[in-house]
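F.,

This is the one I mentioned.
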């Protein structure tokens, strides 16, 4: 159950990021100018790169960003398909580590683009939860800048007698995805969801992801 939920969210977000990347590719020449500047900056480092693997070892963290994801995110997928999708999304390289984790290597500009897209997606989700009427018991959604904590302010009685608690799953998964792409250790990332009574201000429920996913298995 845990891995299925993770995979479905990742597939959705990967498609979303890929679609946004294709959209941006048709934007004005301003984007191309930025890419040329990044290319020029890389060349000015006078780093002789014989292949993609070497680029990971040379000036690590200066030109590239590495993002490592747990192997549970890729269950049922083979490395060829993972690499093909990554290449399509503008990722420089994909490395399968000895512990089964997968490391994506990308330029700093690509990483920033992806982080901006994930952030915008989470903020849109937050606004939807508050305003679109699908979760009527939810009165407000608060969060910190890193999306490692969310607070659902709810009508407690209605919340506990509805399916509105599914909202916490969406926030938890999105927050975990943001954490991982923001460089948090894949062995120690977490997202905490507080559920607060809108009248009393008391927190009556706390859920921590990914631990909460283990409980659903």
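My design for it:
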């Amino acid at each position: 159950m845990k891995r299925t939920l993770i995979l479905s969210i990742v597939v959705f977000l990967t498609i979303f990021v890929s679609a946004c990347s294709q959209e941006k590719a048709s934007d004005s020449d301003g984007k191309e100018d930025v890419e040329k500047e990044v290319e020029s900056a890389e060349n000015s480092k006078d780093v002789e790169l014989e292949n993609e693997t070497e680029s990971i070892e040379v000036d690590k963290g200066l030109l590239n960003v590495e993002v490592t994801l747990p192997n549970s995110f890729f269950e049922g997928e083979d490395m060829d398909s993972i690499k093909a999708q990554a290449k399509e999304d503008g990722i420089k390289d994909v490395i399968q580590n000895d512990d089964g984790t997968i490391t994506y290597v990308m330029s700093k500009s690509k990483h920033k683009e992806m982080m901006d897209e994930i952030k915008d997606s989470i903020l849109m989700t937050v606004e939807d939860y508050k305003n679109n009427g699908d979760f009527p018991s939810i009165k407000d959604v608060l969060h910190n800048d890193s999306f490692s904590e969310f607070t659902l302010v709810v009508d407690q009685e209605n919340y506990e007698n509805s399916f509105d608690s599914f909202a916490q799953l969406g926030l938890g998964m999105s927050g975990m995805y943001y954490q991982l792409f923001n460089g948090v250790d894949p062995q120690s990332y977490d997202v905490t969801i507080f559920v607060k009574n809108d009248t009393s201000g008391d927190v009556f429920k706390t859920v921590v992801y990914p631990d909460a996913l283990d409980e659903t298995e």
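The chain has eight helices and seven strands.

Talk soon.
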